[in-house]
Every structure is written in C-alpha cells, then in structure tokens.
Amino acid sequence: MMYGWLWRHLPGPTLVRVLISLVLLAAVVAACFAWLYPAIAPHMPFNETTVGE
C-alpha cells in the first residue's frame, strides 16, 4: 500500500522512477548505518558476551 502511494507520486517515466527509488533506498540505508544503528547498539543485549570469562 505504501509502495504504491510512493510509486504514484514519483515523477517521470518508469526508468526515472526506478532510479529515484534506488537513490531513496540507498539514502535510507545510509541513514540507518550512520545514525540509527549506532544509537541503538548500546541497548542491544548481544553486546554482553560471556566468551572468555
């Protein structure tokens, strides 16, 4: 449902829409790796390892 809405609102022919979608996807992934994942990493339980103790 959301993807259909996004597709209908992107400008241009199909090839341009595909390229814009790929750029948007890359931006979201980059934002997740740059800000989201580092922010939540200290709160994740797998950071407390017991190997070697």
Structure characteristics:
single chain; 53 residues; mainly alpha; 0% strand; rod-shaped
Report what the structure shows.
It is built from two helices and no strands. The relative contact order is 0.08. The model has no long low-confidence stretch (mean pLDDT 89). It is mostly helical and 53 residues long.
Question: Major sheet: size, sense and barrel closure?
Answer: none
Order of helices and strands: HH
Extract low-pLDDT stretches.
none
Q: Radius of gyration over alpha carbons?
A: 18 Å
Q: What fraction, in percent, of the residue positions are helical?
A: 55-70%
Query: Quick one: overall form?
Result: rod-shaped
How would you name the oligomeric state of the polypeptide chains in this document? Answer: single chain
What's the layout of helices and strands?
Elements: H1 2-9, H2 14-40
